[in-house]
Amino acid sequence: MFKDELETITAAIESYGEKPPDNIAMISDPFAGQNFIIEELRHRYPDTISYLPFFSVVTSKDFIPNLYTAKDVVIMERCHFLALRKVGGFAMLDEFLDFISSSEKLFITTWNSYSWSYLNAVRQIEGFFPEIIHLPKMDSKTLKELILSKYEGARIEFIDDRVIEKKQGFEVLERKITLPFTNTALTIPWISYSPGESKKEEIEIEDAVFNRINIIADGNYGVAQRVWERSLEYPEMKTSNIPEVPCAVDLTINEAFLLTIILSMESIQLVDLAEIAGPEINIDQNLYRLIQHGLVEEEKGYFHIKPEALKCVCNYLTRIRMVW
Domain range for residue 294? Predict the structure, then answer.
């Protein structure tokens, strides 16, 4: 999983001290697997790396002293918490960029892809990170291998309990052809025979399950894992348990703005959401409607996009130009 990305970061760590450090920005959508890479790096280099994550919006410079005392290689996770989408909201980001501009340490940073696009457009932050890594989407086969690898020694029974209509027989169609040496178009009957699905044409049920999961996940490992866990009735996985996620979204401007903040911050507390949104927006009412729409959920005081709805939310906010 993410072999190429791990090799790139490992090479930068191994070559530290031989040349000026090339700070790294690792960028991905919510749930896409940044934590896997971070944990692997911390496991490989326990004595080399300092780990300094952000868990909420940063409003003071208290984090700066920690950078001075950190080891030569520093992992800064969730750096999108350094900036707010509001007037004066870049002060902490500027403090961080000022520090790394004059530091000889190697910084490995992670960013939400939508925050990164916004900050790069307004602050050109890519200039501070010579090595930029975008986590790739996964195909259904890879997702299947990764998820099932956690069940080694256990047998999962895949059950296809959908109702499928199979068409079989002759069908008369019309086709237009043009005769040689003429521009005249003729309509002729064309007989088509459909024998129905043969056994060779049928997709293995395991593959069909993960194809359906990946339609929802859109190559996002974390979303696929969540859909799998919520659909599994161990040891059975029924195709009917995989949710159908409708994507008919029609929000007010305030709802769309709050949804954009939650998407860009990935996971945010109510107090931080209110800090960014300002007093003009009724947070409680708009949050309630977003939850009722099935787009947002709350866990342990933090609000985030409901994983199953992530693809729908991203497409909607991109369409109305709230994110890009």
Answer: 253-319
